[in-house]
Amino acid sequence: QAQFIMEKYGIPQISTGDMLRAAVKAGTPLGLEAKKVMDAGQLVSDELIIGLVKERITQDDCAKGFLLDGFPRTIPQADAMVANGIHVDHVIEIDVPDEEIVKRMSGRRVHP
């Protein structure tokens, strides 16, 4: 569904996991901070994720909009977005039955 929305509206899909990996790989200040946290086996804070989102949505490809995939997941994360000036125009929830998720996941290959 994300692919369809991206193509229809010409906007990028933004995944927090992808952003974290890219920031760590690029060695950005936020990426280095996130790497320290992850290397310690801890969860990256909402504050750090919000910083990455703010950084990402200023890029040129987000000028017409963007699709946040899997974020925010909690009310505090949504509140933090608002507090940091990240405006959301629309929310789409795609509800997939558990059986379908298992079916789709079972068909994926896993790298050992």
UniProtKB/TrEMBL annotation:
Top-level taxonomic group: Bacteria
Keyword Glycosyltransferase among record annotations: no
Subcellular location: Cytoplasm
Pfam family, one: ADK
Keywords assigned: ATP-binding, Kinase, Nucleotide biosynthesis, Nucleotide-binding, Transferase
PANTHER family: NUCLEOTIDE KINASE
Quaternary structure, from the entry: Monomer.
Protein name: Adenylate kinase
Organism of origin: Shewanella algae
This protein's encoding gene: adk
